[in-house]
Specification:
By secondary structure, this protein is an alpha+beta fold. It contains seven helices and 13 strands.
C-alpha cells in the first residue's frame, strides 16, 4: 500500500531529455495526446522511450528525488481520515458495510501483446447487491478504465526496446458511498525503467438510486468565475505553484469542462474538484460544492 496522497498534490510529470530533448518538449507544449480521460504528452513520452537505451533521459522538473521516493512509500489506504486535519480531503478508502449494496476490490493485470516487458496492474471495485439497479451497467462503467490501461500498455510496448521495461499502476480509492451515490477515483502512475513518468487521476460517479452513471461535466457549473475562485482555493490549500500559473483562468475553465481532463468525485468532506493537465494534476476540496451545482 502506498502512502496517502494529499488531494492537493500537483505531480510534475513532463518527460524531458538532455539538450535537444528539452527543446522538443517546449516546442510540443501545446500538442498533447488524449488517452480516454487523461492527457498524455505522447510525443515526449515516445522520445523518452527511444532515448532510454543511451541513458539520456532525465525528469528535469523533478529535482528532489528524495522527496519523490518518500511519497512512494507504502501505507494503509483503508485508514480513516486524519483526525488532526479534516479540512482537506486526502485519498483513502471510504468503504461502508451498512448499505443495501456491497463493494469488493478486485485485482487486474495485463501484459503487452508483443511480449516485451510492459505490464499494467490495477485494483478496481465491484458493486453487488440484490436490489442494485443496472449492476452490469454500473460495473462496466467502473471497469472501463481497465481497457484504457490495456490499450496504453500495448501502445507503449510498441515503442520499447528489448532491454527497457514499463509498468503502469492504478490504485483504486472508493471515496464515498451511501444509498444514493457511489464515487471512486483511480490514482494512476506510469514507470519507465523504474522511474515515474506519468500520473493521472480518473474519477467515476454513480447514481445508485437510479442505477445510472453520472456525466461528470454536468455536476457543477464551471465558468471563468469558478476558475478564478478555484485558483485562489488551490493557492490556499496547496500553496502557490508555478506550474499551475502557466494556465490562464480560461484554460482552467476549458479543462474542467472536458470529460477527458476533469477530476470530480464525492467525499465525506463534500466534493473534490480539479483537473489533469500537461504537468500532472491538481484538486481542491469543496465543502460548499452545492453552491456550484448546475440548475436543472
Amino acid at each position: 500500500m502506498k502512502e496517502k496522497w494529499s488531494s492537493g498534490k500537483i505531480a510534475a510529470v513532463i518527460l524531458g531529455s538532455i539538450g535537444a530533448g528539452i527543446v522538443l518538449i517546449i516546442s510540443l507544449y501545446a500538442s498533447v495526446y488524449k488517452l480516454s480521460k487523461v492527457i498524455i504528452a505522447w510525443d515526449e513520452f515516445e522520445a523518452a522511450i527511444n532515448e532510454r537505451e543511451d541513458g539520456d533521459l532525465e525528469e528535469w522538473l523533478d529535482d528532489n528525488e528524495e522527496e519523490k521516493d518518500e511519497k512512494e512509500k507504502k501505507s494503509d489506504k483503508d485508514s480513516d481520515l486524519d483526525n488532526e486535519n479534516t479540512e482537506y480531503y486526502e485519498f483513502h478508502n471510504e468503504i461502508r458495510e451498512d448499505l443495501s449494496y456491497q463493494v469488493s476490490l478486485e485485482d487486474y493485470k495485463v501484459e503487452a501483446k508483443n511480449g516485451l516487458n510492459a505490464k499494467g496492474t490495477a485494483e478496481y471495485p465491484v458493486i453487488t447487491g440484490e436490489n442494485v439497479k443496472n449492476p452490469d451497467v454500473i460495473n462496466k462503467a467502473i471497469q472501463k478504465e481497465l481497457s484504457v490501461i490495456e490499450e496504453h500498455v500495448n501502445d507503449v510496448a510498441e515503442k520499447l526496446s528489448e532491454n527497457a521495461s514499463y509498468l503502469f499502476e492504478a490504485e483504486c480509492y472508493v471515496t464515498y458511498m451511501d444509498e444514493d451515490i457511489f464515487s471512486m477515483a483511480y490514482m494512476e502512475y506510469g514507470y519507465l525503467d523504474g522511474d515515474r513518468q506519468e500520473t493521472y487521476v480518473v474519477s467515476v460517479n454513480i447514481d445508485m438510486d437510479n442505477g445510472m452513471v453520472m456525466t461528470n461535466t454536468q455536476l457543477l457549473d464551471i465558468d471563468d468565475e469558478f476558475s478564478i475562485d478555484f485558483r485562489k482555493r488551490s493557492d490556499k490549500q496547496n500553496g502557490e505553484n508555478e506550474l499551475l500559473d502557466r494556465y490562464s483562468d480560461q484554460n482552467i475553465t476549458e479543462m474542467m469542462n472536458q470529460e477527458s481532463t476533469l477530476i470530480i468525485f464525492y467525499t465525506p468532506l463534500g466534493m473534490e474538484v480539479g483537473f489533469n493537465h500537461y504537468y500532472g494534476w491538481v484538486t481542491v476540496t469543496y465543502p460548499d460544492y452545492q453552491d456550484f451545482q448546475k440548475k436543472l
